Amino acid sequence: MRNKIRNILFVVGIAAVVIMLITFDVSWNMLWDSLLTAGYWLVVIALLWVVLYMMNTLTWRIILSESGPVTISFWRLMKLTVSGFALNYATPVGLLGGEPYRIMELTPYVGVQRATSSVVLFAMMHIFSHFWYWVTAIVLWLCLMPLDPVMTTVLGLSAVFCAAGIYLFLKGYRNGMMVRAIRGAAHIPGLRGWATRFAESHADDLSKIDRQIAELHAQSRRTFYASLLLEYVGRIMQSLEIFFILRLLGVDGGWIGFVHSLLILAFTSLFANLLFFIPLQLGGREGGFAMSTAQIGLTGGTGLFVSIIIRVRELFFTALGILLMKVCQNPKASKQNP
Prior knowledge:
Layout: H1 2-22, H2 28-38, H3 41-65, H4 74-90, H5 95-110, H6 112-144, H7 149-175, H8 178-185, H9 192-201, H10 203-218, H11 221-248, H12 254-273, H13 284-295, H14 300-324, H15 331-335
Helix pairs in contact: 1-14, 3-4, 3-6, 3-11, 4-5, 4-14, 5-6, 6-7, 6-10, 6-11, 6-12, 7-10, 8-9, 11-12, 11-14, 12-13, 13-14
């Protein structure tokens, strides 16, 4: 059964990557010219993302270690991290692919409850750090960038969105959110019957997972803040990708260049995440780059070049993550039922 689910996710991921390549709205000549222009910086960007994935894996491992011994190696956990993010990129509505896959693959090592709670906590921390990153970008814009009516409105709406998100996550950390999430799913047409049955048959497990989520925030403050700091620093470091590309184009470097990179990434990711139902945010991310680069005074061509290079990097790591699903599988885990 586990192999069957893995194969289904693998096929879905491969199909999504193929569709992304076919629908890549850039001519092959423009794509090739962009890659030649980037040159060795593509290697630098790839290495940066290897470091970022290692930081994600360390966050997950720190969270997992809080509930007991970690019996899975760091590199196998990193493989699950990369493949999980690849499935999230490739499937609509994001978390429908990567998180179930991580739970399924981690369960033979630590049990279903620890696997589920650690994956949920890791996903929560990853998203929670995004909200704080967006808050940082809002503050930086208010302090350093000019304001006009349009940007004032955008910043105001973004601040409200971030405040609401942070409030909901803090509430979820204090009380858990699995039981509420399943109850919420019971109100969605098409999921009502499944959610009701799942809540009834797994009531004890869901309550235990909620207690583990609440315990991380209430009793394990060091783990909570260490994992949050790792994810937040990772978001800041991700801005280096855009910084490197802008330097390649001759845009002034220094701290102001890095701030511009941070702002471009923040508002592009915010815009793209509002279109979470589109695999790899096709079109939305490019539009976000065009708007954010224009707001800081860069040309539309610069925004297009940045989006092309980042799209190539995303496609590379998405394809790599999908292929890793079939590499170095645990033979004992493959024979077990999920």
